[in-house]
Amino acid sequence: MVKTIRVSEEFHEPVVAHKRETETMEETLRRLVGGPSPEMLAQALAGGDEEAAAEMRERIERGRERERERGEELRKRFEGSGA
Predict the structure, then answer these.
(1) CA gap 75, 20 in Å, rounded
(2) Handedness of CA 7, 74, 70, 17 (dihedral sign)
(3) pLDDT tens figures, 18-70
(4) Does residue 2 fall inside a structural domain?
(5) Is the pTM of this model over 0.85?
(6) How far apart are the first and last CA of the chain?
(7) Residue 50: inside a domain, yes or no?
(8) How does pLDDT run across 6-15, given as a tens digit for each residue?
(9) Per the structure, how many domains does the chain have?
(10) For residue 5, is it within any domain?
(11) Would residue 52 count as lying in a domain?
């Protein structure tokens, strides 16, 4: 089943800018978001697949760590700019 989502031009433009020539928009969004694949999510929710659930938890934690690092980097840039 295919679903359509609406996004603003403001959101669409940077996604398209990051899209690789061989990627679909779905693949680009998955790569940018960095979340678990829909297949992995379905396995974890439907069958109680502990291995898939553990991998999802690891990916979530890695994503959180990346966000903490980005936040720290932005804070340092802001403080260093004298703003």
Answers:
(1) 30
(2) positive
(3) 999 999 988 888 888 776 666 766 766 676 667 777 777 788 888 889 888 88
(4) no
(5) no
(6) 49
(7) yes
(8) 888 888 898 8
(9) 1
(10) no
(11) yes
